[in-house]
Design goal:
Thrombin, subunit H; about 475 residues; alpha+beta; globular; 22 strands; six-stranded antiparallel beta barrel
């Protein structure tokens, strides 16, 4: 009894484990694996990675990110100025003008006027100088004092003078990099509220990678080519005001543009400043020897002023009157072989209209004719109509393409009547390249001049 009881107790106390899902209990109590779950013994393998598909998806995702970034950048670049102008509106630069100044009366003219008797306009009889009157005594110091005063005028003009340097990078035969520099004198024309505008020769800066402007106090600033004129080789360079220090702004001055249309220029004393001797900040004194020559260039005409100053073939700068006003811009291009070193200049009055357009950043329209005025004698005796008489036509110009011929007389551009070359130039300056304009010309027929009307698309000056 006890023995059986102990056997039962040992059975009861043995560890009991319930069957798993894969096992079943035989009637004898033995656990066996159920064959119905044998399929679960198979090892489940992971799906292999499709590397081509993964690479393709990665490329597509990266491409979409790049495209999105480019679109975002483009949108920002396009819209940022719009929003900036809306939030912080920027004022446009002021339009620059250079009006013609009235002719000043010279001392000798004032003397002649004072000798006139009011009423009849007859000159007052002058007493002949007596032989007893002694001539004024002049010393060397007086001569020096006169030059000192002239030099003071030149020194005052230096406030409006600058040195313009065009820097270009290049490599030599041995592939070593170097910088070439072209240098010229310039004058400060105007302040348009945002920039200083400087007139200088374009040959030193037109191909330059950077432009440096040095003012009278030695400070330098970076400039940019605003516009240039192919016929005069002049350019206008702009320097942002924010790049110029306050001390320099106080030291500099705007150039004082005078008039070259005066009747009393011949024989008047002048001062040449800039680089008349070929070196910077050189000065020369002299007088005007002729003002009668006219330089005829495509679509313009300029007065040529010659002096008795013997300078450099590469002279530059300006000539001044005794009040420091600019009478002309030095240009040695038109010198003849026997006058290679004689300082000559283009009259400032004729240049003002070109300078005005360049200063406002506008391109010069190109028609392509050289013309002269029709004289009163030709009009009276030969019945030649007043206008701009065409003497030469440039090859491949809009004028040639439209059928204009030498001997034609331009009498109207648009709605502007043309009676001389000055009016022709002024009328053409109102237009820009690619503008279409109606031009009226008079062409000589068998017995009389006949009117013709042409429509032409204006071109752009070639360099």
């Amino acid at each position: 009894m006890n023995e059986n009881q102990n056997k039962d107790d040992s059975h009861v106390t043995s560890e009991y484990r319930p069957p798993s899902r894969r096992e079943k209990i035989k009637p004898t109590g033995e656990l066996v694996e159920d064959k119905d779950f044998e399929f679960m013994k198979e090892k489940i393998k992971e799906r292999p990675i499709n590397r081509k598909k993964l690479v393709r998806r990665t490329i597509i995702t990266a491409s979409m990110a790049v495209i999105f970034g480019l679109i975002a950048c483009f949108t920002f670049l396009v819209l940022e100025p719009v929003f900036s102008n809306m939030l912080y509106p920027e004022e446009d630069p002021k339009q620059v003008t250079f009006p013609e100044v009235e002719e000043e009366m010279l001392p000798q003219d004032m003397l002649q006027t004072e000798t006139q008797i009011p009423g009849n306009g007859e000159p007052e009889e002058q007493e002949e100088p007596t032989t007893e009157a002694a001539a004024p005594s002049l010393e060397v110091s007086d001569y020096q004092a006169l030059y000192n005063k002239m030099y003071a005028v030149a020194q005052e003009s230096q406030k409006s003078m600058v040195t313009v340097t065009g820097v270009t990078s290049d490599v030599d035969w041995f592939n070593n990099p170097y910088e070439s520099k072209g240098q010229t004198s310039g004058i400060i024309l105007a302040d348009n509220g945002k920039e200083l505008l400087i007139l200088a020769n374009k040959q030193a800066v037109e191909e330059a990678e950077s432009i440096q402007v040095m003012f009278c106090d030695g400070e330098q600033a970076t400039g940019a080519l605003r516009a240039s004129d192919a016929t005069t080789d002049l350019s206008v360079i702009s320097v942002p005001l924010e790049e110029i220090g306050d001390d320099t702004k106080d030291a500099i001055a705007m150039a004082n543009l005078g008039s070259s249309n005066g009747n009393n220029l011949l024989g008047s004393a002048i001062i040449a400043v800039g680089t008349p001797m070929g070196t910077g900040n050189s000065v020369a004194y002299g007088m005007i020897t002729s003002v009668g020559s006219t330089i005829s260039v495509p679509d313009n005409a300029y007065k040529l002023i010659t002096t008795d100053i013997y300078g450099s073939k590469n002279a530059g700068g300006v000539i001044l009157d005794m009040n420091g006003k600019i009478l002309g811009v030095v240009d040695m291009t038109y010198n003849t072989e026997d006058m290679e070193n004689i300082v000559c200049a283009i009259g400032i009055s004729e240049l003002k209209r070109t300078i005005t357009k360049l200063s406002n950043g506008k391109e010069m329209a190109y028609f392509g004719v050289e013309a002269i005025d029709v004289t009163a004698e030709a009009n009276t005796k030969l019945k030649v109509p007043f206008g701009a008489y065409v003497t030469e036509i440039q090859m491949d110009s809009p004028a040639m393409s439209s059928g204009v011929q030498s001997g034609d007389i331009i009498t109207k551009i648009g709605n502007e009547e043309i009676a001389n070359v000055d009016q022709y130039v002024d009328a053409l300056l109102d237009y820009s390249p690619e503008d279409s304009v109606d031009i009226t010309v008079m062409r000589q027929g068998k017995d009389e001049y006949r009117e013709m009307s042409i429509t032409v698309t204006l071109g752009k000056q070639s360099k």
